[in-house]
Design goal:
Gyrase A, domain 2; six-stranded mixed beta sheet; alpha/beta; binds magnesium ion; 479 residues; binds guanosine-5'-triphosphate; Four Helix Bundle (Hemerythrin (Met), subunit A); seven-stranded mixed beta sheet
């Protein structure tokens, strides 16, 4: 190791060290265009904000106000003028000189009155003065490309705006403040450290075998794999919080499916009658159970029928069942039904214990108590949807089934992040096999390089342009 030192640090470290810097440091992108967009939702309100960003932001704002601009970060009252000098609106102008702005460019915020007609007219005037209409997410994209934030933080802004619960908003703020990025960067640093050791071993072929076999690299690899796994677990909670769970209620007609949906939703959303075949269409309801966002779906009862409308309802029910994250299979405890028989008849291919909860309903009409148990390897629970018996236990079973256990420091995450971590783990497993089974240094190094690229996609270090376009394209305009 000592012999390796000098050469190694002079050569490989240079290359890998630059890589480390590129992911920790900032670089700046020069855009020629100045973009403009209405940043507040279009509608009637006291104030409407229009944002300008780019090299001509100041010049355009000066032409609009026909005056010099206020001092940086100080509010200045100005009139907003049309081409013929007539006053269109008046309001506050705020200037943020580069690089200390949201995008890292010169930014001007024009706070006029919040009405769609005047806001659109002001935006049109800015475009006449040389600005370009911003595309969805273009301000955030520039902020990302100018190193003002990484991809995870940019996504967290969108998630904060779209948050549907307090818990989701809190975890979005945590991601925005860098909680998630810090974890990823810590693992990336460990991975780069491991790559340094492997690259060093390859450079000295006469020592390669010993070096690979001495256990040090394996120990480092263990540590990286454990660290990725730990982040994966936290990110899974954040992803559940953001994307929620698709829960579908299915069963025979009259089993009490719609009653269960109403009880879980806390209001009379679906029609309930004692006529078998009441529900025909698919019905969605967004609810939150123990803080977990859920889209709950009620479906038509499954049975053989000659009724064309009901047949179509059943076809749609089966489609929903096949796509569900979790299926609540409801049956009436008083009918002597074998709960799995229906599942075998209608969706045998989708019978997995981790996607299915069996629910024996109407326990109020039996002498059986509401409780959780096991039935042929599946979770089973007795409830009364009508009398609200066993429903809290059902709610707990649903969230536990989804593996939802948010902690105080949960950060928001997306499926994209989990996919990237899964690929990272695959490359790390490959690296382990090359190391342990084949002792093949070059192949270990290549797998580790791919693992680093996959992990780097999360914060945007190694993201392809089309991925960036997809991510920012889903943001709203003016962000
Ligand atoms: N006693 C009792 N009756 C229930 C319970 N749950 C539902 N019911 C009754 O069972 C009947 C059918 O309930 P629904 O909720 O409409 O059943 P469903 O499964 O949606 O039926 P379809 O829409 O026809 O497929 C209604 O008369 C409900 O009041 C329960 O827990 N206890
Ligand atoms: Mg129904």
């Amino acid at each position: 190791m000592v012999i390796l030192g000098g050469f190694f640090f002079g050569y490989h470290l240079g290359f890998l060290f630059n890589m480390t810097l590129s992911f920790l440091g900032e670089f700046k992108m020069q855009y020629q265009t100045t973009i403009a967009a209405i940043a507040t939702p279009l509608g009637r309100g006291g104030v409407g904000v229009i944002r300008l960003s780019g090299p001509k932001a100041y010049e355009i704002a000066e032409q609009l106000t026909q005056k010099s601009l206020p001092v940086a970060r100080m509010a200045g009252f100005r009139q907003f003028c049309d081409a013929d000098g007539s006053v269109m609106d008046e309001g506050i102008v705020l200037c943020f000189p580069n690089p200390h702005s949201f995008t890292g460019e010169d930014v001007v915020e024009l706070q006029g009155h919040g009405g769609p007609v005047i806001q659109n007219a002001l935006l049109a005037r800015l475009l006449d003065l040389g600005a370009t209409a911003a595309k969805a997410g273009e301000f955030s994209m520039r902020a990302f490309e100018n190193g003002k934030m990484d991809l995870v933080q940019a996504e967290a802004i969108a998630d904060l705006i779209d948050a549907t619960s307090q818990a989701a908003a809190r975890s979005a703020v945590r991601s925005l403040q860098g909680a998630f990025s810090t974890k990823i960067n810590t693992v990336l640093e460990k991975l780069i450290h491991l790559r340094l050791h492997v690259e060093a071993a390859i450079d000295f072929p006469e020592e390669e075998i010993d070096f690979l076999a001495d256990g040090k690299i394996l120990a480092l690899l263990d540590d990286v794999q454990d660290s990725v796994q730990a982040v994966q677990q936290s990110a899974r909670q954040g992803q559940l919080l953001r994307e929620g769970l698709q829960v579908v209620i299915a069963g025979k007609p009259n089993a009490g499916k719609s009653s269960l949906l109403n009880t879980l939703a806390g209001h009379e959303r679906a029609i309930v009658t004692d006529i078998a075949g009441t529900t025909r269409d698919v019905l969605h309801e967004k609810i939150s159970l123990n803080g977990l966002p859920i889209t709950l779906t009620d479906t038509a009862g499954l049975r053989e029928t000659g009724d064309l409308v009901e047949q179509e309802g059943i076809r749609r029910a089966i489609k929903e069942i096949e796509q569900a994250d979790l299926l609540l299979l409801v049956y009436d405890l008083n009918q002597g039904d074998e709960p799995l028989q229906l599942a075998q008849q209608y969706f045998a291919d989708h019978l997995e214990p981790k996607r299915l909860l069996l629910i024996g309903n109407k326990c109020d009409l039996t002498d059986q108590v509401a409780e959780l148990s096991d039935y042929q390897g599946f979770r089973h629970i007795r409830v009364s949807a009508k009398q609200d018996m066993g429903v809290q236990a059902l709610i707990d079973a649903i969230t536990a089934h989804a593996g939802f256990q948010p902690e105080e420091d949960t950060f928001i995450a997306r499926t994209r992040h989990l996919d990237a971590m899964k690929r990272t783990q695959c490359y790390l497993s490959e690296a382990r096999e090359q190391l342990v089974v084949f002792n093949a240094g070059e192949l270990v190094a290549e797998s580790l390089r791919l693992a680093q690229n996959a992990l780097g996609e999360i914060t945007g270090d190694f993201s392809a342009d089309d991925l960036l376009g997809k991510i920012f394209g889903s943001f709203c305009i003016g962000k």
